[in-house]
Amino acid sequence: MIGYIEGDILQKNDDRILILANQIGYEVLLPTIVMDSLKERKVGDAVSLFIYFHQTEKQPKPVLIGFNTDEEKEFFQRLITVEDIGPMKAAKALTVPVYDIASAIEANDLDKLQKLKGIGKRTAQKMIASLAGKLDEFVLSKIETGRPTVKQDELIQPVLDILVEQLGIKPVEAKRRVIETLTLNPLIITPEALLEEVFRAKLK
After folding, report:
1. Of 95, 86, 173, which is closest to residue 123 (Cα–Cα)?
2. Where in the chain is the domain with CATH 1.10.150.20?
3. Are 66 and 34 in contact (CB under 8 A)?
4. Does 4-67 carry CATH code 1.10.10.10?
5. Alpha-carbon distance 141 to 120, whole Å?
6. Looking at per-residue confidence, does 135 or 146 come out higher?
7. What is the pTM of this model?
8. Which range among 53-57, 150-154, 175-179, 193-197 shows the weakest confidence by mean pLDDT?
9. Are 66 and 18 in contact (CB under 8 A)?
10. What is the DSSP string of the chain?
11. Delimiting residues of CATH 2.40.50.140 domain(s) in the chain
């Protein structure tokens, strides 16, 4: 099974590229977020992609779907666990960065999810029902950008413990509030400041 390819671009199309690697040409389908990142690349330029290999009885012709990072591929694999979202539909839906989609799922933001290509209200609801509370690492990957170095566990866990154990808030809801707060205030570096902001947001 193919999981990673490095090679030169032989051809570029609207939603896929042809990569020459070890004298073999691989046609790779690219989600919009990946294609956009390669828009400056020309034929002959080097490229490296993490690959999701898709082949089933209903899809006997192998399809290679490419990603810039292992994180993008991992999110894609989470997405296809949702009922009615297969690999092709998931690839088309990745029109914005994965942390934006993850944030929308964790925030119960149906409107934002329905703006993704091919995602209607019913499918958006299934995405939230299946994945909410399971995408912390994808949301936090954005939050950590530009934030002073601080360990996630040291910042987040004490606040979750207070919200869940002392205030009786359900773990999923507590996690959602913390992630929303950090998304809006990425420079928070202490549990005390985070807890204060969580309460302040709830009072608005």
Report:
1. 86
2. 70-136
3. yes
4. no
5. 26
6. 135
7. 0.74
8. 150-154
9. no
10. ---EEEEEEEEE-SSEEEEEETTEEEEEE--HHHHHHTTT--TT-EEEEEEEEE--SS--S-EEEEESSHHHHHHHHHHTTSTT--HHHHHHH--S-HHHHHHHHHTT-HHHHTTSTT--HHHHHHHHHHHTTS-HHHHHHHHTTTPPP--HHHHHHHHHHIIIIIT---HHHHHHHHHHHHHH-TT--SHHHHHHHHHHHHH-
11. 4-67
Position of tokens 């199309």?
13
Which amino acid would we find at residue 32? T
Confidence class for position 189, pLDDT limits 50, 70, 90: confident
CA count, 13 A, side-chain hemisphere, 127? 34
Q: Rounded to an integer, what distance in angstroms lies between the CA atom of residue 179 and that of residue 173?
A: 10
Alpha-carbon span 133 to 176, nearest angstrom: 7
Which tens digit of pLDDT belongs to each residue from 67-122?
999 999 999 999 999 999 999 999 999 999 998 899 889 888 899 999 999 999 99
What is 70-136's CATH number, 1.10.150.20, 1.10.132.80, 1.10.10.10, 1.20.1420.30?
A: 1.10.150.20
Residue 136 is predicted with a pLDDT of 78
Over pLDDT 90: what percentage of the chain? 54
Q: Please tell me the predicted confidence (pLDDT) of residue 150.
A: 53
User: Residue type for 51, please?
Assistant: I
